Amino acid sequence: MRRLRAEGLYGPRFRDVLPGFTGAAAVVCATVAGLVAAYRAVGILAPVIGVCLLALVVAVGIRRRRPDARRRRGRYTADELRELDIHGLALAVARMLRRDGWRVRLLPAPDRPRLYARDAAGRQLDVVFRPVAEPLPDEGLPDPRTGERATGPRRQLVVHRGTFRERDVRWALRQGDTGLLDGPALERWARGVRLHDLLAPGLWDDTPTD
């Protein structure tokens, strides 16, 4: 038996599962005691309501932990990000922006979608998806419709699941209004870190004019 346990073929020992078992037993006992006390104080209605509320909490918890529900809230695992195509990545970034309080417009394109986002402070953000910081030779100018009737500072965010080269970083610094989001930063953002905390503070220094 010792050899089987050492090879991971027998399962945990009793002392390994005792803490979890004790905690679960304590929760069950406390719940039952609470229902009994409520029954004695109010009658049958109290435990019925309590059981219904408990079932509702469990159902909501299970639903929120489902992958689809989690992704709709803008949270992705690293493996999920790697499996997305370019349009799926654009949708994921749009969800993460909305999670951080931005209003987002998706600008679909055959091979290179873009996003336009605006937050409550009036800041505007153009999001592009490409492996380099500089615009690609066949990449068109920003859609003028994204800026109509909009005032305030406008910045660009370049998203890439890989790693930017040193020349990309230098180019972005020269622009002064461009932020780079590489693979590791993208994964941190997908786990729940706010975009504002991932980018250089100087990118947001301007104040809105409206």
What brief labels describe this structure?
single chain; 210 residues; alpha/beta; 5-stranded mixed β-sheet; 9 helices; 5 strands; 49% helix; elongated; disordered N terminus
Would you spell out the secondary-structure blueprint of this structure?
Elements: H1 2-6, H2 14-42, H3 45-64, H4 67-72, H5 78-83, H6 86-99, E1 103-107, E2 114-118, E3 124-129, E4 154-159, H7 166-175, E5 178-181, H8 183-191, H9 195-198
Parallel strand pairs: 3-4, 4-5
Antiparallel strand pairs: 1-2, 2-3
Helix pairs in contact: 2-3
What does it look like?
It is built from nine helices and five strands. With about 210 residues, the protein is α/β, with parallel strands linked by helices. The protein has a five-stranded mixed beta sheet. A hairpin with a 6-residue loop joins strand 1 and strand 2 (about 115-120). Helix 2 crosses helix 3.
